[in-house]
Amino acid sequence: MIDATKYAPTFRSACTSLKGEAYCSPTVVQALMAVSRHETCFSDCKPFVGAHNYGAIQCGVIADKAGKCPANCIPARDTSPTATGASIAYLGCFRAKPSAEEGIADFVRLMTFQRPLIAEALPSGDARQIAWAMRRSYYFEGFGKTQEERVENYATAIAKNAKVNASQLRQELLVSLPPLEEEGIGTVDIAAGSTAAGLLIAALLKRITKGSQE
Question: Does the reported pTM lie above 0.90?
Fold first, then answer.
């Protein structure tokens, strides 16, 4: 069973160490944990068991012809969407850390320091805003025929996992997905709002995205 209670203290500690008490509200920690549970089940789902990778963070390279990755990386399947909404699978290389503490700190650092758009969105507790910030920061590619579908699917996953975590931790649910009509986001150009994070190479959208710039 994937148990959020095992990881909550480490997430809180990592966040406060990196960003301070003022930023690391219960909402921020709940949002971080929702993304982590969605991406790798807190590194408790294959192929991440034992890798201490809490965000499906990639190493920036793909596996070689023999299916092997550099040191401190593990091979794992990922997909890249096509213009038709289909997906192309490839064998990527994902970071492996020696401990849960280092792995969670690596993930929190990526989400808060290295992706400033995401850091700005996390305190909102709005799963859609967080998903859009992650997409604009090229954190994920997702599934769906359009950017909006990909973001909405990811936002739905954030909200679902936040609810499960909150239930296990017996916490108030602080991260949710408002109805679209209340949000008024509509169609958004993925490049819009990218200035805070800096414009990244468009080719990243077609292949390795999660953490490959670090």
Answer: no
